[in-house]
């Protein structure tokens, strides 16, 4: 009986692991770095609110641009030459800090 339960569990888990490891591709909009951040400021009034250096030097930096009034946001990856918009949206919120866990 135990062997049947373990076998059933393995057969259920393995396809789930395979699915979770699929690679997804999506289009990314890139331009010269000197153009992208000023464009987001001028067009959407978004300002940098978080900047982080990638753990891989070749990947440069990431910045989250926000407009607190309109609640729009843009995630940009950039280096000295090229900046790419990885994602954008609206209705952002900052989770409340808690000692137990983030309010996601």
Question: What key phrases describe this protein's structure?
Answer:
single chain, 104 residues, alpha+beta, 2 helices, 5 strands, 30% helix, 33% strand
Can you tell me about this structure?
With 104 residues, the protein is α+β, with helices and mostly antiparallel strands. The protein has a domain at 24-90. The protein is built from two helices and five strands. It has helices at residues 2-20, 33-44; strands spanning 29-32, 47-53, 61-67, 72-78, 82-90. It has a five-stranded antiparallel sheet, covered by helices on one side. β4 and β5 (82-90) form a beta hairpin. It starts with a helix and ends in a 14-residue tail after the last strand. Mean pLDDT is 82; it is low at 3-11.
Kindly report the spatial arrangement of strands forming the biggest sheet.
Answer: 1-5-4-3-2
What is the count of helical runs?
2
Q: From N to C, what is the helix and strand string?
A: HEHEEEE
Low-confidence stretches: 3-11
Percent of residues in β-strands: 25-35%
Major β-sheet profile: 5 strands, antiparallel
**Terminus-to-terminus distance:** 40 Å
Quick one: overall form? globular
Query: How much helicity do the residues have?
Result: 25-40%
Helix-strand category: alpha+beta
pLDDT averaged over residues: 82
CA gyration radius, whole angstroms: 20 Å
How would you summarize this macromolecular structure in one to three sentences?
With 104 residues, this protein is of the alpha+beta class.
Which SSEs are present, and which pair or pack?
Elements (H helix, E strand, L loop, with lengths): L1 H19 L8 E4 H12 L2 E7 L7 E7 L4 E7 L3 E9 L14
Antiparallel strand pairs: 1-5, 2-3, 3-4, 4-5
